[in-house]
Design goal:
The protein is an alpha/beta fold and about 350 residues long. It has helices at about 5-10, 30-35, 50-60, 65-75, 80-100, 110-115, 120-140, 155-160, 165-170, 195-200, 215-225, 240-250, 260-265, 275-280, 290-295, 300-310, 315-325, 330-350, and strands at about 15-20, 100-110, 140-150, 175-180, 205-210, 230-235, 255, 285. The protein has a single domain, classed as TIM Barrel (Alpha-Beta Barrel), CATH 3.20.20. The protein starts with a helix and ends with a helix. The structure holds adenine and zinc ion (ZN). It holds the Pfam family A_deaminase.
Length: about 350
Amino acid sequence: MPAHPIREFLRCLPKCEHHIHLEGALTPDVLFSLAAKNQITLPQNDEAFESPTSLIERYKRFTSLDDFLHYYYIGMSALVTASDFEDLAWDYFQHASADGVAHAEVFFDPQAHTTRGIKYTTVVEGFGKACKRAEKELGITTLLTSCFLRHLPPKDCLEIFEDEEVQKSYKSGVVRAIGLDSSEKDFPPENFTELYRKAKDLGLKLTAHAGEEAPASYISSALHNLGVTRIDHGIQLINDPQLMKKIALDKTMLTVCPLSNVVLRCVDTIKDVPIRKLLDAGVQFSINSDDPAYFGGYILDNYVAVHEAFDLNVKEWESIVKAGIEGSWCSAERKDELLQRLHRVLAEWKGKI
Ligand SMILES: Nc1ncnc2[nH]cnc12
Ligand SMILES: [Zn+2]
C-alpha cells in the first residue's frame, strides 16, 4: 500500500485539466533566471522582487484577483523567446504528467505579450512545440486556448483576433478555443459579444471566466451573450438557484479552481468552495489548478485539498472525473479511451480505499 493511498488513488485517476494559464506556471525561480537572461528589470520599488523567496512570501498574501494579476503580469514580462515559452509549458506538462493528467486544455494570454512587443508567432511557436512534445513524450492530449484580456478595450481584443497571424493559428488548428480572463468586476461578458460571434463563426470552442469574483449575472451573460459552452470558475452560480438548475440540465461544465479561490480570497477556506452544493445540484464540473506557481499547488494538490475538505467517496470522485472527460474538447475516441481507463483504475482500487 502506498504511504498516502488517497493521494495515490487520485493521482491514478485519468484527470482532465481545463483551467490552467501557462503563464501562471512561471515559478519565482524561473522568473528570476529568465529576467537575468533576457535583461528584464524587475520592479525595484517593491521588496517582493528582492529574491524568489520574498516573492513566494508575497504570493501568500494576495488580497484579491487584481492584487494577484499585478504580480502575474510583471512575472510574465520575463518571457521573451520562443524557447522561454516552450520551456515554461514543458515544465507545466511534466508536472501535469506526474500528477496523472491525461488531457490538458491550456490557456495563454496573447495580449499580455504583444502589448510589450513580443510577436504572437513567438508565443504560439513555443507553446505549440511544448503541446506537441507533451502528446508525443507524455501521452497527454492537449488543446490551446487563447484568452482575451477583459480589462482592455473590446476593440483592442477584436483587433488582435483579426490579426493575420492570429487567424492563421485558428485556421491551422494550433489554437482551437478562445477564453476571456483578467480583472473581472466592471468588465462584464456582454462587452465582448462581437468577438465571440466572430470566434463562433470560425468554429472555435468558446469559454469565459465568469462568476469568480463577480456575481452570477456574469455567468448568465457569458452563456446568453457570448454563447460559451463552458464557464471558468463559476462558483458564484450557487447564488442563483434557477441558473444552477439550467446549467445542470444543459450539462454546462464549470472549471472550478479550489486553491485559487482560497488564495485570491473568493472564499475563506476550501470547505467554502461549493463542491458539495454543485454535486447535490447535479452540476458538471472539473477541478483545476488555474495558476499553479502562484497558488501553491498543481492539479493533484487541488484534488487532495477537495478530498480532505469534503471527504468524497469513490462514486463522487468517479462522477467528477467522468464529468471532466465528457466536458473535454477532445475527440470522441479519446473520451472513450479515458472513460475505459477510469473504469480500469476504479476496478484496481476497489476495496482498497
Ligand atoms: N484566476 C484568474 N482569473 C482571471 N484571470 C486570470 N488570469 C490568470 N489567472 C486568472
Ligand atoms: Zn483562470
